[in-house]
Each structure stands twice: as structure tokens, then as C-alpha cells.
Amino acid sequence: MNAPRAAGVDTRAAIRATGLRKRYAGLLAVDGLDIEISSGEFFGLLGPNGSGKTTTLHMLATLIRPSAGSATVAGFDVVREPVSVRAAIGLVFQESALDRTLSVAENLRFAGLLHDLPLRVIGERQRELLELFGLADKRDQPVATLSGGMRRALDIVRGVLHEPRILFLDEPTIGLDLPNRRRIWRFIERLRARTGMTVLLTTHYLEEADGCDRVAFIRRGRLVESGAPRTWVERLGRHMLEVEGPDLDGLAAALEAKLGAGLREGDVAYFRCRDEDVAAIARLQAEMGSRASAWRIRRPNLNDVFLWVADGKDLG
Ligand SMILES: Nc1ncnc2c1ncn2[C@@H]1O[C@H](COP(=O)(O)OP(=O)(O)O)[C@@H](O)[C@H]1O
Ligand SMILES: [Mg+2]
Fold first, then answer.
1. In Å, how far are 15, 29, 72, 264, 303 from 20, measured between CA atoms?
2. What is the pLDDT along the chain (316 residues), one digit of tens a residue?
3. Residue whose CA is closest, atom 6 of ligand 1?
4. Which terminus of the chain has a smaller tally of CB atoms within 10 A, N or C?
């Protein structure tokens, strides 16, 4: 049973898309996407490069127009009410939204004014946020003089300055070191706890996806169902057998006969296994183990789910 929600919390969908489609010349970048994200939810969209994640976020953020289908964000239609959508959302996209020739403070003031924030509020939030990210002494420097990590942090500060109801994060921490990634996630968590903000995230970092309430995988513009990260991993199975070696063909065929289709990634082959397979695997290892340079059985993780889905395989 779901926990009862506090009075006054908006339980409507924050984001709802139906048959959302984007066509570029001959290419269906997004091919009939249905998605519903609840208010306050932290939702992760995962998928290989080119699978349509950014295109989806761009349509929801009203930056590009869908070719077909419909979507509402914060209850507003992305095609008919783009101004209302934009007022409700914050964006941190792969391309920086910062003006490199302006100073840190000027960039934030500009972003705040775009959202009709009073100058006093902009000043307060700017001070607090720059302090938090260790950027206070850079406030009058042009953005061009900041390090890559500082610019990324500033992009995030810019995206949340107006405390949006819904935040779109497209690979927000790519290229950042671990301390900076942690700092950014702590900050976003605090903001979510305080404001109930909905977050739609794309990421390649599994520890980020693990923290999501739900993740969905997208493949060639189509959504492969969504669920809590742990449920996905459980569906994959109890164990993952990983064998490694330069000449795996014979061994992989023997394993496949026992365990069903596996997955090959260069010198490594992966197989899902159940508890009752473990004895058979031990026998195979005794017979054929010398053909592999490494042989291990471990728990599956979200990375395995990602590989399975990206390869077009059914999770069963
Ligand atoms: N402006 C565009 N014109 C033509 N094709 C595009 C354009 N933007 C994206 N695409 C194509 O759409 C597909 C999905 O891209 P994208 O949404 O950026 O994927 P992802 O963010 O998952 O890596 C890719 O094949 C990409 O080349
Ligand atoms: Mg992208």
C-alpha cells in the first residue's frame, strides 16, 4: 500500500506524454513515447547514445516541437502553452546555457530576471548557492575563466535559481569529479526535500540512476517499460556469470545451451543464471574453464540491465 500523502501535496502528473514523436528527415528520433511522471518523483531516463533522450527532454521543455503526439508539463500543453511550461521548469542541458563573456553574477542575475525574480531574491540565492559550490570568490569573473567543473556547477545553479517545480537534467554531471558530483546531488536532494520538486534526469552514471524512484530505458526512440531500479535488477535474475577470454566462441556456445542467450561485449560474455544453474556452471567450469582467462559469478546490477536492454533483449 502506498503511504498516505500529506495534505496539500499535488498528486497530479508533473509530466505526461502520449504518443510523443519526433521525426528528422528519414529518422524517427522519438517514436511514440508514453510516459507519466508523478509530482515529486525523481525519474531517470537511461539509454544508449542516440536513443532519443535529449530529443525527448527538448520536446518536454518546449525547445523543439513534437512531430506528433502530445505532452503536458506541470499541467500545461507543451505546444499550446509553452510560456506556462517554461515558467514551471528548470533546465540543465548538455550544452551550457551560460554566457561565457559575462561574469558569474551577471549570468545568474540575467537568469533570475528571465524568471521575474526580484533582484533582492536573486542576490540572496546567488550568495547562498555560490557559497555552497565554492564559487563565492569567482562571482565577478567572466565565466570563460572558470574550470570545466565550476562551469557545470554554475550551470546547475542557474537551472535551479528560480526553484522550479520541475527540473530537467540532461547528463548534468558528465565530466565532473566525484566530490563535485556528490556536492551537486546533495544539493538537489535538499532542494527536492524542501520544495517537492520533480526531477527528470538522463545519466550514464549508474549510482545516479540507482537513486531514482523509477528509471525507464529508451531504445531507438521507444520506451522499454519503467520501474524502480531494484525491481529491474531483480528481473534480470539472481546471479550473473561473467567469463572473459580472447577465444570464447566454443565456451559461450556451451554456456548458452545451458543458460539461454547471453550477451557478448568484446572479450567478455555475460549469462543470467538461477540458483539451480550454479551446480551445472561449476561442472562446465571444471570441463572448459581453462578456455577463459577469468570466470566469476556475481549479483546483477543496473549496468547489466542497461546492457541487456541496449542489446534489444527482453528482461523476461
Ligand atoms: N536536429 C537534429 N537533426 C537531425 N537528427 C537529429 C537532430 N537531433 C537529434 N538527432 C538524431 O536523433 C537521434 C536521437 O538523438 P538524441 O535525442 O540526441 O539522443 P540521446 O540524447 O539519447 O543521445 C540521433 O540519431 C540523433 O542523431
Ligand atoms: Mg543526449
1. 12, 10, 11, 33, 27
2. 444 444 444 457 999 999 999 999 989 999 999 999 999 999 999 988 999 999 999 999 999 999 999 999 999 999 999 999 999 999 999 889 999 999 999 999 999 999 999 999 999 999 999 998 889 999 999 999 999 889 999 999 999 999 999 999 999 988 788 888 888 899 999 999 999 999 999 988 888 898 999 999 998 899 987 889 988 889 888 999 999 998 888 899 999 999 998 999 889 999 999 999 988 888 988 988 888 999 999 999 988 888 888 887 777 7
3. 24
4. N
> pTM of the full predicted structure?
0.87
Kindly give the distance from the C-alpha atom of residue 24 to the centroid of ligand 1, in angstroms, as a whole number: 8
Cα of 109 from ligand 1 centre, angstroms = 32
- Provide the residue range defining the domain that includes 265: 238-299
Return the half-sphere exposure (C-beta side, CA atoms, 13 A cut-off) of residue 231: 9
Counting the structural domains of the chain, the total is 2
For ligand 1, say whether the CB of 47 is within 6 Å of any of its atoms.
yes
Examine the domain organization and report whether 160 and 277 are in the same domain: no
Do 76 and 84 contact (CB within 8 A), yes or no? Answer: yes
- The verdict on residue 311 lying in a domain is no
Ligand nearest to the CA of 170: 2
The three cell numbers of residue 282 are 561449476
| Nearest bound ligand to the CA of residue 55 | 1
Whether residues 163 and 282 share a domain: the answer is no
**Which protein residue has the closest C-alpha to ligand 1 atom 24?**
50
Instruction: Give the nearest ligand 1 atom to 52 CA.
Output: 17
Instruction: Give the closest residue to 79 by CA, choosing from 64, 93, 92.
Output: 64
Q: Cα of 29 to ligand 1 centre, how many Å?
A: 6
Q: Which residue has the cell 524512484?
A: 213
